[in-house]
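Work Package 4 report. The design task specified in the project plan requires that, given a folded chain encoded as structure tokens, an amino acid be chosen for each position. We show below one input record used in the internal validation round.
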């Protein structure tokens, strides 16, 4: 909900990325150039100005056990983490239509703290994550993702809002096993506050609160998730949902 970074699917896009690690892998960086947002007839990106993105991060404790271009919100006790990151994106004529276009500018700062307590054979893990985001669209409202009958579920089209957002989450990996895995209760709060000059007075905002648990069998490779989500849009009409998910990768 808080992410307004453009992408074809889940923030991903076509492009090229340079990444690496320095200072005994504690300093991580990435910089890239990517396909245009709103690259469609009648969209602001018809001039094909590329999207530029970058991120830097420093780990004050152990280096994160992942590549520089990939981060995670937990490592399940594989390392002691205290990481601070700064990211940004910019695209000329990145939002709006061909008739009313604006530059897209965004940045965020985020932090991750994770501490393993106990012995190597039996330990618990505390995790705390927080982030602040800011998005600017030159005072222009972006087009809808279905602009010109474009398929709303595919393509780097529309959907960016001007405003600020915050995310705070915490989790606790219980030290003992239950069956084939371990339980990780979690809480998360997200909020997006729209820019009042575009979306009405009073800085309308959307909020979502999540409470649930992961059943972790093999880290990120295999886990099940149960989540209760309470969503409150800017209109104020609250809705609740129960979600059951599975993540498997190899």
């Amino acid at each position: 909900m808080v992410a307004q970074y453009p992408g074809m699917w889940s923030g991903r896009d076509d492009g090229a990325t340079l990444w690496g690690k320095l200072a005994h892998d504690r300093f991580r960086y990435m910089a890239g150039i990517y396909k245009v947002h709103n690259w469609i007839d009648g969209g602001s990106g018809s001039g094909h100005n590329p999207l530029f993105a970058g991120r830097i991060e420093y780990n004050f404790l152990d280096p994160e056990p992942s590549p520089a271009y990939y981060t995670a919100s937990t490592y399940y006790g594989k390392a002691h983490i205290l990481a601070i990151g700064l990211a940004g994106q910019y695209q000329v004529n990145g939002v709006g239509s061909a008739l009313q276009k604006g530059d897209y500018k965004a940045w965020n700062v985020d932090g991750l703290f994770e501490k393993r307590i106990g012995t190597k054979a039996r330990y618990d893990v505390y995790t705390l994550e927080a982030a602040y985001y800011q998005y600017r669209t030159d005072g222009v409202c972006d087009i809808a993702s279905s602009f010109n009958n474009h398929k709303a579920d595919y393509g780097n089209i529309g959907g960016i809002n001007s405003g600020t957002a915050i995310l705070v989450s915490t989790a606790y990996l219980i030290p003992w096993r239950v069956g084939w895995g371990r339980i990780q209760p979690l809480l998360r709060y997200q909020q997006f506050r729209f820019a009042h000059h575009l979306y009405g007075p009073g800085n309308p905002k959307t909020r979502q609160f999540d409470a649930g648990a992961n059943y972790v069998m093999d880290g990120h490779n295999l886990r099940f998730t149960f989540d209760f989500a309470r969503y409150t849009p800017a209109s104020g009409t609250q809705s609740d949902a129960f979600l059951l998910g599975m993540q498997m990768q190899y």
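The chain has one domain: 15-248. Validation will be extended to a larger panel in the next phase.
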